[in-house]
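tool_call: predict_structure(chain=1)
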Amino acid sequence: MTPKWGVAEHAARRLQHVAGKRQALQVEECNAMTSDASIEALRGMMEARLYEWRQSAEKPTSKVGPVVTVSRQAGCRGESISERVAAELGFHLYTWEIVEQIAKDEHVSVQVVSTLDEKARTELEDWLTGFQGTHNLSEYDYLRDLKRVTFAIAAHGSAIIVGRGASFLLPPEKRIALLFVSPIEVRIRNVMEDRGLSEKHAREHIVKVDAEHHQFAKKYFQTDILDSAHYHLVINTALVKPDTIGGILKEVFHHKS
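tool_result:
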């Protein structure tokens, strides 16, 4: 049965579960977004987030944590690395599937944006003003909804957002942008292991996904997603371990604050 929105007791219990088993929940959440019960899972997950955000807003001394956006080449295991880094930092992880589901679900997206205070809402409207450019109406609506949801997540901080052009959906001052890369032979080997593909099919998969990422960034942001000038850090995941990435980010947070 889908939980009713605004029931504090249910949200509190859910939040306790999140706090106690965050790393396991991150995996569960990401997988749930592609299941038949994705809408119900999404609403249950976001109810806990909404409760947490509102509780934090009631504490005057509550400090908003940083937000990290991750772009990645296919096959460099960006999602699983982001998951491990999020667990180490105590951050929430949002994959592009989750962000897109929130944006598509009007009920959830309205709830998410409603948690913004007046100052943040003004900043959001300023950010949305004038971005239509050459997009047609349906593309404009899609991009606007993605921007609203991503902005709202960022406003509450302590999050890692993976993919879907998150680095370009937020104002530069609102995020720390990472680009994960890796040599092609490493990426092919990763895809072969992770997906059980032959070398030929693994290479084809990488070419296809990288092309989709490139086309998405070109279409919606008129940019090259692999241009290092867009990012705070470009990290070769074949050489840098997830715990090291977490340590580097802590240093970045410290100097940025």
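agent: Strands lie at 67-72, 92-94, 159-162, 176-181, 233-236. Proceeding to next step.
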